[in-house]
Amino acid sequence: MSNLRKIRRKHGRSGGQVESAEPSGPERIELEMSELEAILERSKTQPLSEQDYERLHAVLQTLLFLTQELDKNRVSVQRLKQMLFGTTTEKTRKVIQQALTEAGVDSGTSDDDNPQPEPPAEKAKGHGRNGVEEYEGAEKVRVAHPSLRGGDTCPRCKKGKVYETAKPTCLVRIRGQAPLGATVYELQKLRCNLCGEIFTAPAPPEVGSQKYDAESAAMIALLKYGSGMPFNRLQRLQGSLGITLPNATQWEILKNCLPVFIPIHEALILAAAQGKVVHNDDTGMKILKFAIPEPVDGQEPTKSDRKGVFTSGIVSIGEGHRIALFFTGHRHAGENLEEVLKRRAAELAPPIQMCDALSRNLPAELKVILSNCLAHGRRRFVEVAMNFPQECLYVLEIFKAVYQNDAEAKARGFSDQQRLEWHQAHSGPKMDELQKWMTEQIEQHLVEPNSSLGEAIAYMLNHWEALTLFLRRPGAPLDNNICERALKKAILHRKNAYFYKTENGARAGDLFMSLIHTCELNKVNPFDYLTELQKHANELTCTPDDWLPWNYQRAIQSTASL
Fold first, then answer.
1. 215 near 223, Cβ under 8 Å?
2. What is the Cα Rg of the chain in Å?
3. Order of strands, sheet of 322-329, starting from the edge strand that comes earlier in the sequence
4. 22-26: Cβ within 8 A, 24+ apart
5. Residue 90 has what pLDDT?
6. Residue 374's closest CA among 464, 479, 485, 483?
């Protein structure tokens, strides 16, 4: 008979609290199987002794410990698969179907226990190609009819008059070109064969005095910080097209135009501080300068208390506009949000802050109305659906109904107050039902608290007030997805460029990402915006508020009329 080893000792018969099941440092009891069989035989004829009780209690606790660890490890393997191969979907029905398939359970047993999957949505009509209205930045060439004008006699019936229709026939033609083009102006030179005087043709007026124009800086910034293309990759692309553009030159172009954008960046931060709802989160980043600190006055560099480097994303939603801000450094998302909110007007009420439940996302000293991300709570049930398909199906169906209610409110164009009343009427009963069900699972010991499902339920119950703020406060969002999408800008840069070299480079990246993503959130062309800011640098310095993304077109018209 093999021995039972690594049996964890727990409290005895009079003990109340059971130790946490940690895999490290267990106390071992060496037991033969014959000893356990003897204990069972004695229990048939006489009460268990204290020693026999402790041994059986340890065996049961070991069984519970191993079950929990196997459960957790199974979930961990599932998470590892998602990290390596990506999550195919988090849709409720597909998550449950995948879980049942992994478990080897027939997914079509009963209509009650396993409802039939929803029919696929009807495919929208059309050829799937982009219409001409999608080409907003394309050059438009008007082609007149070679022989007819408005008011001419119809050449077919010879009686009517032709007139111009409101919508012309449009043809789209795409041409390939380098991201940055170049023009070489060959100025003719004439030299006198007697006195040697050289006469050079004057440059055309449109040439200008600068080698790199405003569009060049805007394009480099958009490729680097908007699309994640590293400088050296753009250098190779330009070189292969016969228009050289060294990576050092690209950085110099952006560095030289940074002073133009600083006033508008400060204006964005000030405007973001006045928002009604602020979202924040962060992601890891790397700055090489922080990894190798320089010695000060010949002394050895001291080690910083905080080693991590983060890029914090903040999305502020105000009246009719959205602002995205990025901050890279040792500070967490909550600390960066606190610095932004210090500029908030004193007469304004505290904003609604949407984030996940990490404490580092909260501003330490400033008051906010906390709302936690419902998608984070939902994802915990998605991760354990393989182990608990029926329970997770129940929870995910409630989340699905809540999100459908929110989509309906948006489709109907409800105000914040109307949306609140809509959720209270349609989502409130569902969430009350969910809270009651989760409480029963824990209090009636229907779910092991230390299991993966128990931890998912505990997360929801512990943060219930913040997770359900949308049922009590007008304008409270359901989740933090808008900030998660904003952070993809920084993640894309990290995946392609790997790091920032210096803190100054990180600040430049934060500035350009903030401007570019704010433009995208407000449906403004970022290339045109960055270009116009450079062309109107003097006006921008005087009145930066007039040149925010949602204002700059009016500012251009005002400048042109002067």
1. no
2. 33
3. 322-329, 310-317, 277-284, 352-355, 369-372
4. 23/69
5. 67
6. 479
pLDDT reported for residue 435 = 96
**HSE-up of residue 310 (Cα within 13 Å, Cβ side):** 19
How far from each other are the two terminal CA atoms of the chain, in whole angstroms? 98
Cα→Cα distances 133→156, 263, 520, 521, Å: 32, 34, 18, 19
SS3 508: helix
Three-state DSSP class for residue 391: helix
Which sign, positive or negative, has the C-alpha torsion 298, 299, 303, 305? negative
Q: What is the mean pLDDT of each run of 10 residues along the chain (562 residues)?
A: 39 37 51 80 81 81 67 55 54 68 52 49 64 81 89 89 88 86 90 90 87 93 95 94 93 95 96 96 91 57 69 93 95 94 94 92 90 93 86 92 95 95 96 95 91 93 95 95 95 93 94 97 95 94 93 89 72
Q: What is the largest CA-CA distance in the chain?
A: 133
Q: How many CA atoms lie within 13 A of 214 on its CB side?
A: 15
3-state DSSP call for residue 433?
helix
Tokens of 417: 């107050």
Check: CB of residue 518 under 8 Å from CB of residue 322. Answer: yes
Half-sphere exposure of 251 (CA within 13 A, CB side): 14
H or E element that contains 288? helix 288-291
Report the distance separating Cα 293 and Cα 272, nearest Å: 33
Q: Which amino acid is at 377?
A: G
Look-up: residue for tokens 């059309």? 126
If we measure between CA atoms, which residue out of 562, 561, 528 comes closest to residue 552? 528
User: What CA–CA distance (Å, rounded) separates 512 from 155?
Assistant: 57
Under 8 Å between Cβ of 394 and 437: yes
